[in-house]
Amino acid sequence: MDGITNVIKPPGMSSHQVVNTLRRLLHMKKIGHTGTLDPGASGVLTLCIGKGTRVVSYLLEKDKRYVAELTLGLATDTQDASGETLQITTDFSISPMKFAATVHRFRGRQEQLPPMTSAIRVDGQRLYKAARAGREVERQPRSIHVYDLHINKIWPEGEPDLHFGSRVLLDVRCSKGTYIRTLCHDIGERLGVGAHMSFLSRTQNGPFSIQDSFTLEEIETKITGNDLSFIMPIEAALPHWPKVIVSPLAEQRIRHGNAVTIDHLMSVPRALVPGDEVLVMGLDGDLLALAMIERQEQLVCQPFRVLKG
After folding, report:
1. pLDDT score of 133 more than 70
2. Is the pLDDT of residue 38 over 90?
3. What is the pairing mode between strands 287-295 and 277-281?
């Protein structure tokens, strides 16, 4: 059983617990996720099953999209609602225009300091483990890109300004490695009143959205009915890669990881050039390998990750 599935992770479960639940339901161990969600967060958790785990690295690199709630006036040591209060600011009034202008400054490429509660390793140790031990570790800012950042809603509604406890729903599309709780914290810092992330849901992971996803309960029901329609083919993870069909005579070479010439490709969707990454398909529609077009004595299709041996 090989493929990709998207689970709507519920709040309260770790990403690893979701993986273990699917392992139990499918009676198989080879399942991995493509980007951790904090236990308190919900949303799209893309899981790779069987040989689908061979494309995990590609999905880890993809952009993400989130819906996040920011609460003004209260900063925590974890930058989200699970932490201890570090700062409370109650006496302030911020116009929606000033808030929007501040948020706008966080669009684009920027440096972000990873929070102490992240899973990043520094000197071989996870930051969150150091945080649990009460230690502060020196961290280096990381380059991130916030492509889109929009204000969807402000609560309470009908008030002219934002005050202590005002909540703002943000829609964020960003590069991998972006910490949304740090983004919320930094917006509060820029405003001078403090803030934390009080809710987070991932709505998109690369090519997969929450509309393509299933709850664990839905997946269990489908498995009970021998319905595996919740599992997509591996190539769904790489929708922009051209598909080429290899001739039956050359298929065995692909299965053994050997290059074949362009002449052995029966179907090519467009002109290929050196450096192109392609999905090599068999006549039966099975994905055989991920390959790259290279120029040797002539153009060849060289597998670099065989999926059907």
Report:
1. no
2. no
3. antiparallel
For the question of residue 148 being annotated catalytic, the response is no
* Number of domains composing the chain: 3
Residue 197 shares a structural domain with residue 210: no
- 191 in the same domain as 75: yes
Q: Which two tokens stand for residue 121?
A: 């390793």
Does residue 176 share a domain with residue 76? yes
d(CA 203, CA 29): 27
Q: Which CATH number goes with the domain that contains 299? A: 2.30.130.10
Where residue 185 falls (left for φ over 0; alpha for ψ -120 to 50; beta otherwise) is alpha
Residue 48 contacts residue 32 (beta carbons within 8 Å): yes
> Structural domain of residue 10, as residue ranges?
3-62+206-235
Cα-based torsion angle of the residue sequence 237, 180, 197, 39 in order, rounded to the nearest 10 degrees: 40
Could you tell me whether strands 42-49 and 195-205 are parallel, antiparallel, or unpaired per DSSP bridges? parallel
Asked whether residue 254 falls in the same domain as residue 300, the answer is yes
For the segment 276-300, the average pLDDT, to the nearest whole number, is 94
ω into residue 156 within 30 of 0, thus cis? yes
CATH number of the domain enclosing 194: 3.30.2350.10
Residues 223 and 259 in one domain: no
Catalytic pick among 2, 38, 80, 186: 38
Burial (CB < 10 A; 0-12, 13-18, 19+), residue 95, is exposed
Contact indicator for 215, 7 with CB cutoff of 8 Å = yes
Longest CA pairwise span in the chain (Å): 76
